[in-house]
Structure formats: structure tokens, C-alpha cells
Design brief:
The structure holds two protein chains of two kinds.
Chain A lengths: L1 H13 L12 E2 L10 E3 L2 E5 L5 E4 L4 E4 L8 E8 L2 E9 L4 E9 L12 E10 L10 E4 L6 E5 L5 E7 L14 E5 L2 E8 L2 E8 L11 E7 L20 E4 L5 E13 L2 E11 L5 E12 L2 E4 L6 E7 L5 E4 L45 H4 L10 E4 L9 E5 L5 E2 L2 E2 L1 E5 L5 E4 L5 E4 L10 E5 L5 E5 L9 E6 L3 E6 L9 E4 L2
Chain B lengths: L2 H26 L9 E2 L16 E5 L2 E2 L5 H9 L16 E4 L2 E10 L4 E2 H7 L7 E11 L3 E11 L1 E6 L2 E6 L10 E2 L3 E3 L2 E11 L5 E7 L10 E3 L8
Antiparallel strand pairs in B: 1-5, 2-5, 2-7, 3-7, 4-5, 6-14, 7-13, 7-15, 8-11, 8-12, 8-14, 9-10, 9-13
Classes of the chains: A mainly beta, B alpha+beta.
Chain lengths: 497, 234
């Protein structure tokens, strides 16, 4: 029983976890294994892990260790229904003999006078003989029927589904046999999207650091009891599962999916990596955008700093400083007639003519040179056809110690190679300031939307609390406006120039 | 090539170029053809059309202008052509003398969402390429309207003022696209508001369209459009 062995080891690891701003994952103390679905309570985000550990965050970006659970079991999951939080956590007493316990609380905030975990008893078990190991609970409230469900199980046999009472969190029909819906996987959990139930599970092995083969897979069904088929039509009860996210970059062994729905079509998922190579191979929490394509969930990636072209999905035009652009390489000088015309040379390569170019590589436009013609003070922004010009290239980079939001730090947006900074104005418009000074109106949040485009939002707008986002207005101008999830005005593509 | 041959060649080339220039000029200042899309206003006020487009304008016959870059257009529209050009509220038939030439203001209603300046200039027998058009209209509001936006499209570049403040400028050789240029949020006064535009064309067709959008980006239709005199607020 791998997880039982690992729990004690992990508790030790969690105490030495690493703190700092690196490439992936989050900021602060983010060591955790088998995290529960991240949940929001009283202005804070919480997640619980194997060993009864927990992490808490004020903004979803910087995390710290939280209060321990009264039970130090395996791979908890938590849901908020009505005025109660239902937390399910497993304990093994033999290789496949296990129980899943219910804990309830009115709040997750240990500083609240209402904070008190209460035992709710066992909701699922495995007897050590049957083909199931009752660990890794995943709780799911069906948004269609409002019925509450629990999936659970591990490598030893079936992933099972049983119904819970949404009023108490306890098992609804103790005498009804759980249904088998998948096999030989871990960390099962269900979500609902656009008429389909999706069962996400983790395949591969856990708990071996950078040698862990954990990867998250998914199948879908029209009915909650399945059959859950993958994209090739293979039933998950026969080992099927479309890859949702595997190892990549410097992080190995993603597992334990949990959905966090921000509303307006913006979704995130929580998970852990068995090993973050930049954090010494420790198991860490991450929160990433959840995208959808052709009816299947897709793991998005949080924005990385870099140089980008910011293109409106609404108009196809690119955000630019409102200054006169100059053609890359200078204004063209006509050198004769077109090839094939009178006096032309039929377009022989390098043979001159107006289509022949200058015969050598044209360097990237030097912002230091062209920006000497730009006004020194504030400059408006507008949108235009992207022409590879300096006023159309933006550097987007995370700002240290400026806080963040669920899964990401705040970013500043500057004209590449300059300090000229995009900012929100008190009239709900946009301006480019001569330099960045750290003001909240100069900090930007990037939420990747289900289609892969981005919603871009200032941390604050002077004199308003309305959550306005970067929006196209007409074809050639941008403003700040309320987000319309059904429209394209507030969707932006970030392209590498 | 001997010198006689060179002279002959030069003569032929000169004749050819002259002919081409004459043809181009003839095409650019074609015979006066009535503007099929424009009519004379018949009533004092006119509401915007069903999509909110302003269809009543005073247009000045075109002034020669070159260049569509930001700086060229700004220089062209900021140049003083006639007295009070940024404040005048002309009447149909008023004259303005520009560079020694007498130009006339014409009141027009367009039958379409856009104002076809090519039709307008051609009907006067004027140039349609490398020209600047001044356009003025008066928007009458039943009440103060906040957080509205002027939304325009133009072929080609254009600069726009509302109540004397520059609110939109778009540059380059572009065609008219509805809501291409949109101002920042602005306030329309109760009563009359002056909308003024300068449209600079390079070559070919030239036109513009304009409407106001409300805070929800819906066309503003509570207004009426008049020309020639500023009416007092109701």
C-alpha cells in the first residue's frame, strides 16, 4: 500500500519545503501530496493533503502551511454545501482494507469561533478481499440533479461510485452496492460540463519523486454511472482514459485533479506534481487554467513572462502604443518595375525590382531608435494591424512581491525594451505611462479562458471597484469594460512576435 | 543611341506621360454626376437611422491634402484653411475661401448608413483623391448623456471632435468599417453638441460613417440631428 508508506515520509518532506519564485507552480510553502480540491472560505483559499496537512492562501498565489486536520489520513477531498464543509479522508488498515471518513465543519478558518471539526463516521469501506481499496475520495455535487456523489478507489481494483446525502454528507443508501466505474487508478473525481459527466483519474505510480509516473486521464459519459469512455471509445473500466496532463518541463507526475470554477466560464484546476525539479524534487501544489476543446478538458498553462503581441480575438488587430509606426527596415524605396512587367526581370531571385527586397536580412526594429520620436509623457493605446513594429511588442513579466491571484502572480505590461507601462485610468480607460511604479492600476491579471484566449484585468482601477477587463472597442481602440463571457471583445491572444 | 533618337524617345515619353496625367486628372475630376446617395435635407431635424447612424451633415467641398500617416494627417487637419474652422457652424451654401479658391458648404442627408464623399465631390466636379473634407453636424440630446462613445469609420484617415475636443483619430489608407474608431467615454450635453470631422483621402473611394454608442455599446437613438443653427435646449 504505497500511500500508507508515503504518508509519514511526506509529512517530513512538507516541513522543509521550499519557498521562492521559480518557473512553475506557486509561491510560498506549497509542499503537499494528494491535495484536495482547492476551496474558498471567508476570503482565503484552502487545500488539504495526505497526512492531515493543509495549505492556506490569501490570494491563491502565495501559500503557507495551515491548520492540521484531526485525522491524518490519505488524500482528502472537500466540498461546501449549504452551511457546512464536508471533508472526506481515508485510512488504510491493511493493504486493501480501508475506510473513508467524513469530517464536517462550518468553516475552514481556524480563527473563526465556528471552527470545529466533527466526525461524521465512515461513508465507504473496503474489506481487504474485494477488488477495491477505499481510499482517495473525490466528492461531486451534480449541478443538474443536486445529488451528491463520492468516487473512490486505487490501483487495487475498481474505482467506485456511491451516493451521499447532500444534507449530512453521509452515505445516502448504505445497503446499496457502490457501482464500479473505472479500474486501477487513483484520485478519481467527477466534473460536469456541457451535458457530459467527466471522470478524471490519475494513472501511473506515485510517491517516487522524479521517478513517479503519475498522469491524469479522463473519460466521459452521458450518465453519472457511466460508461466512461475515452476519446478512442475505450471504457475506463477496461483501463481507458484520455491523457489530460502528464509530466512536462521541470515538473513530473501530475495527479489529483480538483476543479475550481471562477464563474463566467473561467475555470482552474488544482493538482500536485510528484516532483518539481526546481524545488529539489519535492511534491508541490499547482493551480492551472482548465480549457475545453472538442468536448474534452485540456490543461492550460499559467502565463510565463516574455515578449508578446497582444491581439484582439474580436478584431484581429494588435494592441499598440498610439504613435506613428515606421516600417521595419525603413520606408521602402522603389527599385524598378514589378517582375514580368515592361523592363522587369521576370522576378529572378535577387534580381532587383520592387518585390526583391534589399538582398540581406532586415534586423528587428530597434525600439531605442524609434522611441526617440515618441512623446515623453503619457501616451494612449489603440489597436492596429500587426506589422512587427516596436510599438506593438509588449513585455509581460511577473512582478515580485506584488501578490497574485489563483495560480499566478500579477504581471506588468510594458512596451518591449522600454519602461512604458500599460495602466488603467480612473475613467475606466487605458494609458501607457512613462514608467512602472508598482501601482495596482499597473498590475495585470491574466486568466486563460476555455478556448485558450486570455482575459486581461487590472488589479485595481482608480475610483472604482467594478471588475473591468481589457476590451476591444470598435476595431481600432481598446478600453476597460465588464467581462462578457459570451462575447469576443474581452478575449485576447498572446502571440510570440 | 544617337542624340536624334534620344530626342525622339524623350518626346514620345513626354507625350505619353502628359497623356497619362491628363487622363488621371480627368478621372479624378470627372464630369459632374449627381450624387445618388445624397439628398438635400427636407425637415429641420432628423433622427439617426435604425442602427444609430448620423445621416445629416454639412460638408465642405474638398481641399487638397497629401499623406495618410499620423503626422501627415495631423499636420493636414491642424493647418488653418479658413477662419474659425474648428468652431464654425456653417449653413448650407456658406462659402469658405481656401488658398484663393471659394469652396461651398453643402447640407446633405445620406440615404445610407455612410456618407459617400466620392459621390459628393464628383457631384461638384471636384477632386476625390488626395483631398481633405470637413464635415460638421449638430446632435441634439434630450438630456445629459454620460459614458457614451462616438464610433466612426472612414476611408481613409480621419480626425474627430465633439464639442471642440479631439476624441478620435485614425490614420493610414483604410476603408470604412463600422465602429472602426471609437472614442473614450464622453458626455453629451443636454441640447446641442457639435460633431466635427476631417476626412483625408488618398486615392479611390472615400466615405465615412458615424454614430454614438451608449454605455452598453448599443447605438444611441434618443438624439436628433440638425444642421445650420444651434437649437436651444428643450
Amino acid at each position: 500500500m504505497k500511500k500508507l508508506l508515503v504518508a509519514a515520509i511526506f509529512i517530513l518532506m512538507a516541513t522543509v519545503l521550499i519557498h521562492n519564485s521559480l518557473v512553475f507552480a506557486l509561491e510560498g510553502q506549497i509542499g503537499i501530496h494528494d491535495p484536495s480540491t482547492v476551496i474558498f472560505c471567508n476570503g482565503k483559499y484552502y487545500t488539504y493533503g495526505t497526512g492531515g496537512t493543509s495549505l492556506v492562501s490569501d490570494d491563491g498565489w502565495t501559500w503557507r502551511q495551515g491548520a492540521r486536520l484531526p485525522r491524518r489520513g490519505l488524500a482528502p477531498d472537500v466540498i461546501h454545501i449549504g452551511d457546512r464543509y464536508f471533508l472526506y479522508i481515508a485510512a488504510n488498515s491493511g493493504p486493501t482494507k480501508a475506510d473513508i471518513y467524513l469530517l464536517t465543519n462550518k468553516t475552514l478558518d481556524p480563527n473563526s469561533p465556528d471552527y470545529k471539526w466533527e466526525e461524521g463516521g465512515v461513508v465507504a469501506s473496503s474489506d481487504g478481499v474485494e477488488d477495491c481499496n477505499a481510499i482517495d475520495p473525490g466528492v461531486f455535487l451534480d449541478p443538474k440533479t443536486k445529488r451528491l456523489w463520492l468516487t473512490y478507489g486505487s490501483y487495487f481494483g475498481y474505482i467506485r461510485l456511491l451516493e451521499l446525502d447532500p444534507k449530512t454528507g453521509k452515505r445516502l443508501n448504505p445497503n446499496e452496492r457502490p457501482r464500479n466505474i473505472a479500474i486501477n487508478s487513483e484520485a478519481s473525481i467527477m466534473i460536469y460540463h456541457d451535458g457530459w459527466y467527466y471522470l478524471l483519474v490519475t494513472h501511473g505510480s506515485c510517491c517516487r519523486g522524479a521517478d513517479s509516473g503519475y498522469n491524469i486521464r479522463v473519460g466521459r459519459a452521458k450518465k453519472i454511472a457511466g460508461p466512461f469512455l475515452d476519446n478512442m471509445g475505450v471504457d475506463m473500466i477496461q483501463g481507458g482514459g484520455k491523457l489530460f496532463v502528464g509530466s512536462s518541463g521541470r515538473v513530473i507526475g501530475p495527479g489529483h485533479f480538483g476543479l475550481f470554477d471562477l464563474g463566467d466560464g473561467v475555470q482552474r484546476f488544482s493538482l500536485h506534481y510528484e516532483a518539481d525539479l526546481d524545488r529539489g524534487g519535492a511534491s508541490v501544489l499547482d493551480i492551472r487554467p482548465l480549457l475545453w476543446k472538442d468536448g474534452w478538458p485540456v490543461a492550460g498553462e499559467n502565463l510565463k513572462g516574455g515578449e508578446y503581441q497582444i491581439e484582439s480575438l474580436r478584431t484581429g488587430t494588435a494592441l499598440e502604443l498610439a504613435v506613428e509606426g515606421f516600417p521595419v527596415g525603413g520606408r521602402p524605396v522603389r527599385r524598378g518595375p514589378p517582375p514580368g512587367g515592361p523592363g522587369g526581370n521576370a522576378g529572378a531571385p535577387g534580381g532587383g525590382g520592387i518585390f526583391a527586397g534589399i538582398g540581406k536580412s532586415i534586423p528587428t526594429q530597434d525600439v531605442a531608435e524609434v522611441s526617440t520620436k515618441w512623446p515623453a509623457g503619457n501616451i494612449d493605446v489603440r489597436m492596429g494591424n500587426y506589422m512587427c513594429q516596436a510599438q506593438q511588442k509588449w513585455t509581460i513579466e511577473p512582478v515580485a512581491n506584488a501578490g497574485g491571484y489563483l495560480g499566478s502572480p500579477y504581471f506588468k505590461i510594458t512596451i518591449a525594451g522600454t519602461n512604458r507601462t500599460l495602466a488603467a485610468t480612473e475613467s475606466g480607460e487605458l494609458v501607457v505611462l512613462p514608467a512602472f511604479n508598482g501601482g495596482p492600476e499597473q498590475l495585470w491579471r491574466f486568466d486563460q479562458l476555455a478556448d485558450g484566449s486570455w482575459r486581461i484585468m487590472p488589479k485595481a482601477i482608480p475610483n472604482t471597484k467594478d471588475p473591468l477587463v481589457l476590451s476591444a472597442v470598435g476595431s481600432s481602440f481598446a478600453t476597460l469594460a465588464k467581462f462578457d463571457p459570451k462575447g469576443e471583445k474581452q478575449r485576447w491572444l498572446l502571440k510570440t512576435p | 543611341m544617337n542624340s536624334r533618337l534620344i530626342k525622339h524617345f524623350t518626346f514620345v515619353a513626354a507625350v505619353t506621360v502628359s497623356a497619362l496625367l491628363a487622363l488621371a486628372a480627368a478621372l479624378d475630376t470627372a464630369a459632374q454626376i449627381p450624387a445618388s446617395t445624397l439628398t438635400k435635407p427636407a425637415a429641420p431635424d432628423k433622427p439617426p437611422n435604425t442602427d444609430g447612424f448620423i445621416q445629416r451633415w454639412l460638408l465642405l467641398e474638398p481641399i487638397g491634402a497629401n499623406g495618410l500617416t499620423d503626422s501627415a494627417v495631423q499636420a493636414a487637419v491642424k493647418k488653418e484653411y479658413f477662419p474659425d474652422q474648428f468652431t464654425v457652424i456653417p449653413h448650407d451654401g456658406d462659402k469658405a475661401t481656401v488658398g484663393g479658391a471659394e469652396l461651398t458648404w453643402h447640407a446633405v442627408d445620406t440615404l445610407n448608413y455612410n456618407v459617400n464623399l466620392f459621390h459628393f465631390a464628383r457631384a461638384q466636379g471636384k477632386k476625390t483623391s488626395d483631398v481633405l473634407f470637413w464635415a460638421v453636424t449638430i446632435i441634439n440630446c434630450p438630456r445629459e448623456m454620460r459614458d457614451v462613445r462616438l464610433a466612426i469609420g472612414s476611408n481613409a484617415a480621419s480626425v474627430w471632435w465633439v464639442n471642440g475636443k479631439e476624441v478620435i483619430s485614425i490614420y493610414g489608407d483604410r476603408q470604412t468599417v463600422i465602429d472602426d474608431g471609437v472614442s473614450k467615454r464622453l458626455t453629451l450635453n443636454k441640447g446641442p453638441n457639435i460633431v466635427r470631422a476631417a476626412i483625408v483621402n488618398g486615392g479611390g473611394a472615400t466615405d465615412f460613417c458615424a454614430r454614438f454608442l451608449d454605455a452598453e455599446d448599443k447605438p444611441l437613438k434618443e438624439i436628433t440631428v440638425s444642421i445650420g443653427e444651434v437649437r436651444r435646449a428643450p
